[in-house]
Design a protein that fits this description.
Strand order of the largest sheet: 1-4-8-5-11-12-13-14
Number of helices: 12
CATH architecture of one domain: 3-Layer(aba) Sandwich
Low-confidence stretches: 1-12
Shape: globular
Largest sheet: 8 strands, mixed
Number of strands: 14
CATH topology of one domain: Rossmann fold
CATH superfamily of one domain: Alpha/Beta hydrolase fold, catalytic domain
Helix content: 25-40%
Length: 385
Amino acid sequence: MKTDSNKNIIQLFKHNNDSATVTKVADDFDLVRGGMLSELNIAYETWGSLNKDKSNVVVIFTGLSASSHVASSSVDQTPGWWEAVVGLDKAINTKDHYVICINTLGSCFGSTSPVSINKKTNEPYRLTFPELTVEDMANASSLLLEKLGIDSIKVLIGPSLGGMKALAFSILHSTLVKNLILISSATQALPYAIALRSLQREVIRKDPLWNNGFYSYEKPPLNGVRIARKIGMASYRSAAEWTQRFGRKRSEDNKLNQNTFGIENTSFEFEIESYLEHQAVKFQNIFDANCYLYLSRAMDWFDVAKHGESTLDAISKTNIDKALVLGVGTDVLFPPQQQKEIAELLSLSNTIVEYKELDCIQGHDSFLVDTTTFSKELSKFIKSL
């Protein structure tokens, strides 16, 4: 099969993330479930200045779909995905801290992933990419920090998948992490979350253009990714928000033929349908299908208990001084009971823990949307350290 040129692949997945630095952190990288990457590159961005004793480091691990561009900078003034939270005199204050946001291993935003070129074949990995775990992501981040000369993290922050990575990192590299902030995360995926991600992966694989993972990068399986994103969006937000925000309002641009359900219809009767379509189309144009499959499955496989005789035994291997654990009452993907479990386990492991269930209406995505509420909690905790 004829493949796209390497140059085209690299250009395709830059996605306005040119400000990221991509660093080779290993020539050979062994993965937890077997297999090896012939070269490991990790993308990251930084804000603020590192102090003399390197004691002001804040590391942010991203969720599944985010790049390392957490905030604007002098290098790239494009607003980041947590623009209201990270920056000068903001909750994560870059005047006082050296902030490093690390792109996830397996993501198409610069780090080694299924779209990367396998040096041994000079072709994209695609589905020859080894099975990926959250632990692999944590270990890759550790290698980057070692490369940067960072041997102590004042605060490690992880929302969603980033929280899973932060937990794994704190267990596997316990001497590096002093304080921890976990947001809407979990020690393991619940069956409901696994079911939803399974559906997302299935619609991607059922797209004829997916072609068993060997699709053209010029004609990728956009429909599969688009529908997968819609399923995701429905779980990232809450029913209460949809009711409050959209109700049963009709779209202004309603040209849908009510007597047909043709696949060519691009207009939608209800505003909620139009909103989901808009968000999904944006996503389908910036995220690789195979990367989505690998990252999604890694979340399903994650289980802290694998690192000990029990979940508590595994958590007891951390060496955290203080932790802030934040959950959201309307989050159905990572519900509050999972955050309570983390808080209780950390407390039993001699960590000083503050747990809060926030009253936000935006569900799992609240940390991205209700930044005022989250900034208040983050700022107070970080200032207390």
